[in-house]
Design a protein that fits this description.
The protein is α/β, with parallel strands linked by helices and about 220 residues long. The chain is built from seven helices and seven strands; from the N terminus they run αβαββαβαβββααα. A seven-stranded mixed beta sheet has the order 2-1-3-4-7-6-5. α3 crosses α4 (about 115-125).
């Protein structure tokens, strides 16, 4: 069997795996190379999951799994979450695996935890070489899927004082990747004592997180 045929069979198998698993309501944390702290905000996703299970009728596993960006394990999850402060590196194999996952129905949310932007933008060119991140307008469905954010992405942490921005990558008109910048939703999802955010700020962060979860699960 030729190398092409083998690759095609693997891809078809992965597509089937994603299709059948896309009905499961679970998400996973993406582990990546490059030295960036992919493991930051350890209490964020468990808190978001609990919030979603209590408020938008999801039934996610309370403890999110961790998957390597280059592993076929990513196909078990309809939604992946990625964060960090520093360097990100995708090998060619990582980029191909992630691209196949996204065009097969998966969704990736990348939340810049401050300092991630220049690295992830460069690596995403490996995933979709002919695309640029596009800022989402405030009337995009993701800002209304569960809770209403008429002004778009909420500001959770100040960082450089810039306005919060939500960027997307699309495949055949479907939003497959969301990059949130100058908002730091993950910090708002963490336990209250970690950043001492007021309840109103944490609530905004969790509500926007619920919007992302609902959108990813239903689109």
């Amino acid at each position: 069997m030729s190398k092409f045929c083998k690759s095609l069979l693997i891809f078809v198998g992965l597509v089937s795996s994603l299709y059948f698993n896309s009905h499961a309501q679970d998400l996973a944390i993406v582990k990546y190379k490059g030295g960036g702290d992919w493991y930051s905000n350890p209490t964020a996703l468990p808190n978001l999951i609990n919030y979603c299970n209590a408020n938008i009728n999801t039934k996610m596993n309370p403890k999110p799994e961790t998957v390597d960006v280059g592993s076929i394990d990513i196909y078990q999850f309809p939604l992946l979450h990625m964060t960090g402060h520093g360097n990100v590196f995708f090998s060619d194999e990582d980029a191909e695996n992630l691209r196949n996952y996204l065009i097969s129905g998966g969704f990736l949310h990348i939340d810049d935890n401050y300092g991630m932007q220049p690295y992830i933008i460069k690596e995403l060119k490996k995933v979709f070489p002919n695309q640029e991140l596009v800022e989402l307008p405030a009337n995009h469905e993701i800002f209304y899927s569960a809770y209403t954010f008429a002004d778009g992405l909420p500001k959770i942490h100040e960082h450089d004082g810039k306005r919060p921005q939500a960027f997307g990558l699309f495949h055949e008109s479907r939003l497959v990747l969301l990059f949130t910048f100058e908002s730091d939703l993950g910090d708002g999802w963490e336990d209250p004592e970690v950043h001492n955010d007021p309840p109103s700020v944490r609530e905004k962060a969790l509500q926007m997180g619920a919007n992302i979860v609902k959108y990813a699960f239903e689109n």
